[in-house]
Amino acid sequence: MPANLTPQYLEADRKFREAKTPQEKLDALDEMMATIPKHKGTEKMRAMIKTNISKFKAALQSRPGTARRGPSFHVERSGAGQVAVIGPPNSGKSSLIAALTGAQPEVGDYPYTTRAPAPYMMKFENILIQLVDTPPLAPEDIESDVVEVVKAADAALFVVDLEDQDSAEVAEKLLANLKEKRLEFIAPDQPPPAERTQFVKRAIAPANKCDAPDAPDNLLFLKEYFGNRLSFRPVSAKRGDGIEDLRRDIFLFLDIIRTYSKVPGKKPTFNDPFSLKKGTSVGEMARAVHKDFVEKFKYARLWRRDSLQGQMVNRDFILEDGDVVELHI
Fold this sequence. Notes:
By secondary structure, this protein is an alpha/beta fold. It contains 10 helices and 13 strands. It has helices spanning 7-18, 22-35, 43-62, 93-101, 144-152, 167-180, 215-226, 243-253, 282-289, 293-296; strands spanning 82-86, 118-124, 127-133, 155-158, 160-161, 183-186, 199-208, 232-234, 256-261, 274-277, 299-304, 308-313, 324-328. The strands form 2 sheets. Strands 1, 2, 3, 4, 5, 6, 7 and 8 form an 8-stranded mixed sheet that branches. A 5-stranded mixed sheet has the order 10-9-13-11-12.
């Protein structure tokens, strides 16, 4: 399959080959990963870029005198997807995570309660999704390490404060400064830009404290001000308004499906699904079940709600959420 590499990727590749220092090479690799097309034809290239990024990061961290200022954050992935939760001081990020997960992150009525990224697991029906609480972002000073956490995540929640009369101005400054650090957000229903020179992350904007007296007017202003650049969801971490809807929205905008493996002659179990990206084929699911299955694969039988009942399918058949698959090898 042709890679169909973009001019932006080719330019980043040129920068990498001409780079003189490990940091220059790492910067070029980050740009290559941000601009390479994502399809089956570039899988090996993307894997190689990730390997090189890890290699040059390790080299930089091990060299004396090259340590970065401030903490270096890394959050190990867990669950069906990873969502970074960011926002300005006192926007209620940690309270929102507590409402979504039932966990108890440190919450205070003073700025900068959260000092380092911390992972929490949110249950949606029969899967877990990882939410990463991050230190608050001040518009005038955004930590690069926090930006890297967001870049590494699958998507983001950009929390705004409906109790703050200046929330639109604060959000605008944050978005502008994040863009300077090569990170841009798009709403879940918006297509990615045709020409990308930076990381683009799908994001929902939970508009917290919707129970505040002026919240309805502030929310209306935010929607008019940002248009389709941000997708707002009114919530109240304190009262619980909109929390269940937000859980479902997070699941939907991660573009994942849940599929179930069935042993021939036995009933499927629905407690532990395989969480896969939309567009996954039967053959790719077979690899997820066991790496040897894809080589030994003969055919599969598939059950899909009311439409398909044990139909024989091949390895190229595209799966949907809720499919039950019986692999024959």
